[in-house]
Write a structure and sequence with these properties.
Blueprint lengths: L1 E9 L2 H11 L4 E7 L4 E8 L2 E8 L5 H6 L4 E9 L3 H10 L10 E2 L5 E5 L9 E5 L4
The structure holds zinc ion (ZN).
Length: 133
């Protein structure tokens, strides 16, 4: 499986974006509000993958509490799959705890589902199936 994106939750999006683009040299490839997840997401090109900076829309949300006082914090790794339903069935059968029993809409209309970090050694893992539009 390829890495689709690595998501980093940030406190100050403008400052972190300046760091990643002006200082580190990444190129911004998208920016969108994902209302479902309560975040603004900015994608930075990293080869065939993306570094995604997440800004919580609500500072009382779980994602903001996860970040806490840190300037930035690794939030999840996302792997690209061709058939997300089949992968969820496979992992469920292997006893992996799922946060999302069914896929839901992520950024760009992709289908996504999270595995529970209790089943993945502590790092939150997202499965991501590209939309075909
Ligand atoms: Zn993600």
């Amino acid at each position: 499986m390829k890495i689709d994106h690595i998501a980093i939750v940030v406190k100050n999006l403008d400052a972190t974006l300046a760091l990643y683009t002006r200082t580190l040299g990444f190129r911004e490839v998208y920016r969108e509000i994902v209302a479902d997840q309560g975040i603004e997401a900015v994608g930075l090109e990293a080869g065939d993958s993306v570094i995604e900076l997440l800004r919580p829309l609500d500072e009382d949300s779980p994602v903001a509490r996860f970040r806490g006082e840190a300037e930035t914090k690794l939030h999840h790794t996302a792997y690209r799959v061709d058939d997300i339903e089949a992968k969820l069935d496979e992992y469920r059968a292997k006893g992996v705890r799922l946060i999302d029993e069914r896929p839901r809409k992520g950024a760009h209309g992709n289908l996504i589902a999270f595995l529970h970090p209790k089943s993945t050694g502590g790092v939150l893992i997202e499965l991501c199936q590209k939309s075909h539009d």
